[in-house]
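Good morning,

Attaching, inline, the backbone tokens for the sequence recovery test we're adding to the shared suite. The designed sequence is right after.
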């Protein structure tokens, strides 16, 4: 697996997800970073230190940046830097995160641990996206629908997100942007099978992984 220099994640980007966790709707994108060491392969499955509490799934549309993006103010130009898309899992140690939030401390222990980012295979953006405001995806666990993503429901559209991120972090070629998760997150259980489906322009792209 080629490792990016960083994985930039957007928190609370869907209002329904912010509400389900009792968070305020943000007035600007909430950003955090996962390091390259957070990446793990789909085939390796999902694992975490159970002593740290529950681990929640968060399925997200993820973007691969194919050319550098720095201080871009035009959302349409920012979108041109995206070369491929996929679905990813932003795994979250929820008990740890809740404790850190109460203490006013950063989230990295809960969000950036080894194995906390699982990305499926990349799909060329031309094959997957016809309208950035009309991208749909789902997550099923043991064949039960748990999450349904629709980019028309994003608080900030993807072009705006990329332009905003580029004001703070220079996005290098190969970097990943995880655009946030819709409602429906919950704790993972041992033995569960996860199925992520991205609705492409002419076909569905389907990926599977499992909880160890």
């Amino acid at each position: 697996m080629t490792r990016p220099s960083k994985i930039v994640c957007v928190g609370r980007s869907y209002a329904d997800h912010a509400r389900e966790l009792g968070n305020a709707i943000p007035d600007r994108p909430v950003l955090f970073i996962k390091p390259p060491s957070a990446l793990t392969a789909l085939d390796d499955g999902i694992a975490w230190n159970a002593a740290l509490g529950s681990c929640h799934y968060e399925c997200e549309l993820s973007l691969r940046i194919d050319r550098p993006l720095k201080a871009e103010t035009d959302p349409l130009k920012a979108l041109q830097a995206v070369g491929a898309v996929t679905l990813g899992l932003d795994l979250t140690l929820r008990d740890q995160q809740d404790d850190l939030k109460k203490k006013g401390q950063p989230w990295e222990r809960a969000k950036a641990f080894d194995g906390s980012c699982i990305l499926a295979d990349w799909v060329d953006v031309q094959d997957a996206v016809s309208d950035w405001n009309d991208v749909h995806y789902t997550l099923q666990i043991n064949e039960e629908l748990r999450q349904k993503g629709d980019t028309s429901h994003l608080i900030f559209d993807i072009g705006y997100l990329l332009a905003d991120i580029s004001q703070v972090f220079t996005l290098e070629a190969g970097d990943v942007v995880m655009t946030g998760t819709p409602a429906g997150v919950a704790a993972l259980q041992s033995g569960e099978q996860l199925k992520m489906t991205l609705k492409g322009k002419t076909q569905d792209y389907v990926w599977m992984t499992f909880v160890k």
